Amino acid sequence: MIGVNVNSLPYESKITYPMIRYIRLCRNLTQEKFGEVCKIDQGVIAKLERGVLDLSINYESRIIDGCRSLNISELEMLSVKRITELKAQRGIK
Description:
mainly alpha; 434 Repressor (Amino-terminal Domain); 93 residues; globular; 0% strand
């Protein structure tokens, strides 16, 4: 977005980079299969998991749509978020 401070926008991200890998592994999916469900290329999924590529609203919405189609509940998403936060606090990758 040209000329817009993204940090000032009233949007709270529901997904973080580390969550993507855990969400995918919750359903025992490869990056390729998860990418097909989310309509995102496998290479992009790999870059998002590593935090190399910005997690834009577009990618996040596609991942959330993919999670819905995989029947991943909000509770499961919150659990994954909490796990990744705890691991980060403990310095575990």
